[in-house]
Amino acid sequence: MSHNSVNDSVAGSGGRWQRAVIHLFPLPALLIYTVIIVYSMLAAFGYSFFSWKGLSRDAFVGFDNFVTLFTEEPYNDTFWRALGHNAYYFALEMVVQNGIAFLLAYIIYTKVRGAEWFKSAIFLPRLLSVIVIGFLWKLILNPNTGVLNTFLKTIGLNSWARSWLGDPDTALTSIIMVNNWFGVGFSLLILLAGLQSIPSEIVEAARLDGVKGFKFLRTIIAPLIVPSIVIVTVFSFIHAFEAFELVYAMQGSQGEPYMSTDTLATYFYRNAFGGTSGGDSVSIGLGSALAVIMFAIISIISAVFMNVTRKHQVDL
């Protein structure tokens, strides 16, 4: 065997060893993910088929927990009400948060003066904890000493001042608007990345053809940033149907006032850890069944949406 052949063989085995070592690096993260996420999902799926006495598993009941959630009072009313609140959460997040994010991203994309500072300022709230955000906005929305009502009264809009979190008509909307303020920076960055990935040749050709204004956004910009729109939409859907932290920080887990801020996640929390419908005893079986339903809703709708929108994606 020639000297060059030996060197090639050693180099080849060294390269294979390096690739094998590189593939080992994700294993710790994969192990943590498997233990915390995958095991939890499988455990919840198994728990949902049993009745429970406190924290002790009792008899196998099949799909009875699912049937209870959908058909028996007060569980079915609470479930459908919470599901409606999650849907409203998603709709408002899409229209307000992502709508504003797109407008701001397009303004920054046009390279206005101070765009980089503007982008950083909008993203800044995202660096704070959700619990901190909830606590601060709860102070701002306080009906007696809050900054918002004080400001409205100062400028003569006394009739607009109200108990934002104490009124069933405004409590959920107030929480969602706080969420939109908190999350607009994240959506902005994703949409801006999509805008900046558009080849300048396409933009220049469209402008030379006289395409401008809303027609330019609809026929040129929108089709070319479909991947970014899909990412933002799926993230918003997942976030809206998992909404818990901000709701809990601002209103607790009981859906106050009068269940007007209840979501699937807070309903799950009460079932699994704080009693059914705010009662004194936990119901791990019902909570697990609700967790399985939430996972099914999020995964199926997200997969369908991504599959449908992929057909309308424009390849650059």
Layout of secondary structure:
Elements: H1 3-24, H2 27-47, E1 50-53, E2 56-60, H3 64-71, H4 75-109, H5 115-123, H6 130-140, H7 147-154, H8 171-196, H9 200-208, H10 213-224, H11 226-241, H12 245-251, H13 264-274, H14 284-310
Antiparallel strand pairs: 1-2
Helix pairs in contact: 2-14, 3-4, 3-14, 4-5, 4-8, 4-11, 5-8, 6-12, 8-11, 11-14, 13-14
Subcellular location: Cell membrane
Membrane topology: Multi-pass membrane protein
Family: Belongs to the binding-protein-dependent transport system permease family.
Largest sheet: 2 strands, antiparallel
Can you name the CATH architecture of the largest domain?
Orthogonal Bundle
CATH class of the largest domain: Mainly Alpha
**Overall pLDDT:** 84
Taking Cα atoms only, what radius of gyration do you get, to the nearest Å? 25 Å
Family: Belongs to the binding-protein-dependent transport system permease family.
Protein name: Sugar ABC transporter permease
Pfam families: BPD_transp_1
Subcellular location: Cell membrane
Could you describe the 3D structure shown?
The chain is mainly alpha-helical and 316 residues long. It folds into 2 domains: 3-47; 65-310, Orthogonal Bundle (MetI-like fold). The chain is built from 14 helices and 2 strands. It has a two-stranded antiparallel ribbon with strand order 1-2. A hairpin with a 2-residue loop joins strand 1 and strand 2. The longest helix has 35 residues, at 75-109. The two termini are 50 Å apart. The model is unreliable at 275-280 (pLDDT under 50). It is a multi-pass membrane protein. Keywords: Cell membrane, Membrane, Transmembrane, Transmembrane helix, Transport.
